[in-house]
Structure formats: structure tokens, C-alpha cells
Amino acid sequence: MKYIKGNTYKDFINQRECQYLSFDGEQVKIVILRKNLDEEIVSIVENSELFFQIFTKEEVVFLLVKFEKLKWLDMPFILDKNIKLNSWEEGYYATVLLADPMSGKLLAKRTKMLSKGLSKALFWALKKQIENPPLNIIQKINKVHAGFSSDEMARLSLGK
Asked: Cα separation of 135 and 129, whole Å?
């Protein structure tokens, strides 16, 4: 689906603030849902330096995202084992969508290519997760979140 800033999308309407991602084997889509955002935050998401890292714990791969001046966000990959991972050599793209969960309005959109090193690390981590899917993945994600903040994950992770 092609998303256009300013349009409203039903799939963004939610009762709570959250962030999640999806991965189709060649591109990461990151959705960040936040209520009552001011223009400064929207501008930071659209225009500031953007950093990515990966963190693996309890057999689960997390993508970490940071916008300059904002805190790290973490999102676990929950993959379908039938997904086909495309080669990392071209680098994976990540599209970030910032939306209001009350209205479903898309406030910001940007796309950035992950570095080749991070794309390679992501490929191998996800390949391992697909080949050996973690049992009780939700419990493992909750365990990681109970033990590590997003900032701690970033400090212990690989990337840029």
C-alpha cells in the first residue's frame, strides 16, 4: 500500500500508542502511533538524523530506531517462516510512518536505506530466527522488555 502524508488510514486507528514493524523480505515498514503530537516532534521524525540497530535476545530479533533528540524505540520481528529473505547485498530499505492512532492520519513518512553492514547482520539474524522459530515468542518478547529498556538494548546492540 502506498501511503501519502496527510491522508487517513483505517489500519492506523488504534486505542493506544505503540510502535510495530513488518518485514516482507526486502523492506521494513515501521509504524509509530502517537497521540497529540506537536509539530516539533513531527519535524524531528521527518527531518532529523535516523539511526538503526539490531538486538537479539531470547532468540528474538529486535530492530531499534532512534531519531535525533528522541529516545530509542524497539520493535521485535515476528516473522512468518514462509517469508523469503531477499539478498542483503543491495541493502534493505526501512520506511517509517508516524500516525495519530485516534484519527488514523499519517503525519510523517520517510524512507532510508539501512547500511550494508546492518542489512547483512539483519539478514543472518532473521534467517536464524526463521529456521529456528522461538517457541512462546510473545512471552520471550515480554521477558526481554522486562529486563531491558530500549536504551539498554541500543547500548548492547549492533548497528548504525
From this structure: 11
**Spatial CA neighbour of 28 closest among 95, 89, 85, 73:** 95
Query: What is the structure's pLDDT at 84?
Result: 85
Sign, CA dihedral 146-143-52-73, equals negative
Cα–Cα dist 54/158, whole Å: 6
The string of pLDDT tens digits covering residues 46-56 is 999 999 999 99
Judged against a pLDDT cut of 80, whether residue 105 lies above it is answered with yes
- Percent with pLDDT over 90 in the chain: 75
Q: CB neighbours of 70 closer than 8 A, spacing ≥ 6?
A: 41, 44, 45, 48
Contact (Cβ atoms closer than 8 angstroms) between residue 79 and residue 126: yes
Alpha helices in the chain, H assignment, sequence order:
39-47, 116-131, 137-147, 150-155
Instruction: Give per-residue pLDDT as tens, 48-77.
Output: 999 999 999 999 999 999 999 899 999 999
Residues in the chain: 160
The DSSP 8-state label assigned to residue 56 in this structure reads E
Dihedral class, residue 115 (left if φ above 0, else alpha if ψ from -120 to 50, else beta): beta
